[in-house]
Amino acid sequence: MPSADAAPPDRNKRAVQCHVHKFGGSSLADAGLYRLAAGLLDDQASTRVVVVSAMQGVTDALIALVGSARAGQDWAPAWEALRQRHRAAADALDGDGGRALQSALDEEFESVRSELAAIFGDHSDAEALAAALPGWGEVWSSRLMHAALAATAPGWLRLDARDVLVVHPGEMGMAVDWSASRTRLAEWRAQHGSGHVVVTGFVARDAQGRATTLGRNGSDYSAAIFANLFDADALTIWTDVDGVLSADPRLVPEAVCLPSMSYAEACELAYFGAKVLHPQTLAPVQQRGIPLWIRNTRRPHLPGTLISLKSDPDGAPVKGLSLVRDMAIIELVGNGMVGVPGAAERLFGALRGAGVSVTMISQGSSEHSICCVVRADQAQRARDAVAVAFADAIADSQAQGVTLTDGIAVLAAVGDGMVGTPGVAARLLGGLAQARVNARAIAQGAGERNISVAIGDKDATRALRAAHAAFWLSPQSLSVGVIGPGQVGRALLLQLSAALPQLRKRSGLDLRLRALANSRTMHLDERGIEPADAIARLDGGAAEPVDLERFASHVRGEHLPHALIVDCSASPAVAALYPRWLAAGIHVVTPNKHAGSGDWTRYSAIQDASRSGGGRFRYEATVGAGLPVMLTLRNLLDTGDELFGIDGMLSGTLAWLFNRFDGSVAFSQLVREAQALGYTEPDPRDDLSGLDVARKLVILAREAGRVLSLEDVEVENLVPQALRAVSRDEFLARLEEMDAPMLARYREADAQRRALRHLARLDRDGRASVGVVALPREHACCHTRLTDNLVQFSTRRYADNPLVVQGPGAGPDVTAAGVFGDVLAIAQSLGSPCGMPLLHAGVPAEAHA
Ligand SMILES: NC(=O)C1=CN([C@@H]2O[C@H](COP(=O)(O)OP(=O)(O)OC[C@H]3O[C@@H](n4cnc5c(N)ncnc54)[C@H](O)[C@@H]3O)[C@@H](O)[C@H]2O)C=CC1
Ligand SMILES: N[C@@H](CC=O)C(=O)O
Question: What range(s) does the ACT domain occupy (predicted)?
């Protein structure tokens, strides 16, 4: 684009003299929207210039009309439909204003009818008419906008850009003849005055005086050209998005609207696929330093994005990410190219000759190969041209050949803040690596404003989301799924709901509940569910039948850096899925004891998957609920201590029952109370049979490196034989059958001044046992309260006087707190790879209409 004269004026030094506003077709779909647009021009600029696109869909309709006329088809019905649409809008906008607007439109529609007839009849002017005809939409639109504005304030002028704007075809699209256009505008203003003006976008005149258009996206370009010609202080492009977003929000739900960016950043993003701005648009405003706002017509209360000389000074290294799909890599490999001048020139000369545009270039310092990325639809042509150019070198074996790899996309990270900031590429490539996306080629210019990575097109969305997460989200962002909102799961959701705002604020921990499942249904949510409302969703219309495979892949997602599943069920079937989840990189936290105490092969698979770089596995709450039992054991062992034995009380339910049971209240009634308080397992027989405690002992023993399984534990079962095999409901109905034997046992112990306590023991030689013991009343275990667990670790360091962990060992709240602690431990261990600031500024994309 040829240079516009005049240096950028200092626009901060004076009040706004002239503000150019541009409305796109999406903002001008009907009469109501014209009025809405007119109502937005409430700035105090002394001159307001409004550049309009055609009504939504009209340019496409005109192009289709030209196509029909060329093909000899009947174009009249479509022409009439277009006319009626404009008449209706004119009627609504200019109802009482006489016939002036209608007759002007009628006259112009008649001109279009004649032009279509000429194209249909293959008149000698047909080509020129066909090129200019799509521009009529802007002419009509300017009339409608003029009517809408005239109703709000008098004195609006209307300028047909074809009267002043002179253009000629250039290498990069239509180029402006600035001098001729400026002179013509001055003449026009001298003739019409310098009031507020409505201008047709998209249209112009060529050097021969023929009407033409600026090509696709030409209306934004027109607005920038007129901002330059009017020497405006500001240009606002009103559109249907809130501004320039950090990434395409259809692909990245987390995309944010950027408050500001530099021309250079906007240009890079525009070149690399951000649809909101065409690169050509920027040059006329950049040359005169005119600030450009992108704002949403339907949400004018939002500030939009300001594009100006300066970048946002918030220090964020990357402003936006863009993706170009449907690309291919052309690679030339050759030993004979090493150190030989001119190979690159020959290659790019060949591509130029074939009319192929190169999007990205990458060459290793060995010069052994050079690759470039081109559009897929030009790839074969590009390959053939390079093969011909290097035919002699290939014949001489100086070059090995030219390869074409299709199915490529280019992901670009753009930002002025990248200049001189170490670690940007590391974060980008680290994000891609985490999402298991392979970088096929990488390019960064010495300008350091853009890092481009060629990737497989099938990975494009995943890559974009991963890269976005790497720059915009806290590295401690976790996508969370919760299974089993029963007693513990519910308590956890409430704790999450209460703690999350503070956690986010104080420590940058960003836990997003995105999935919830019970044994029947699940609810998956892309953006995140408020935990306190989550359970209601399982019964709502958005719930679906549970499918834990889909559940896990949703939680794993692609746009959050980490994923975590919390299993609050007591299901062995769910525990069986842990190895797969961990291997897929999903962290697992659980109070479910089946994984830690179940089948040895599965236990080993879980530990292996976790150790070999998959997700992390934490299950502190399986023993002692919220007490730091496992943590204490791990610390002892990790610091070199040696475990001799473990003994104590490991059941909250049994501790509570034996603390309360004094013969005055039936044992069965106490069991029912314990169940109602949420202390028991879903089936209380797991507690009463000693199985639950046996599981805990196995978990601790394995944590200490012992190979112990449930079958190895000697277990005393308190459940009468007749109740062991019946259903859970029948067991609960017949609970009273436990009363007599338990009362007898209590009386026998009481007679000996002893108290009943349920104890677990793991010996130095590996023997494990659990059961009820009548202890002297002075024994430490008889001085516990409520659900207290008491766990004694005898070790080399704590040989004479064991280390004791004591406190409440059951109940939804304390268990949930233990689970939450594990979640936080994992989240806190996920650090930023290179410690650079993230970009938090901006309006979240969820705010988008
Ligand atoms: N209650 C307590 O004090 C403690 C409990 N635990 C453990 O916490 C877990 C939960 O206990 P509670 O909340 O008391 O049990 P609960 O019976 O109240 O809740 C279990 C939940 O798991 C869901 N569920 C069961 N099978 C499922 C499957 N196959 N798929 C998806 N969801 C399934 C159920 O729908 C229910 O929502 C158990 O593993 C228990 O051993 C651990 C320490 C203490
Ligand atoms: N039912 C268990 C709950 C904790 O694991 C118990 O009572 O200890």
Answer: 332-427
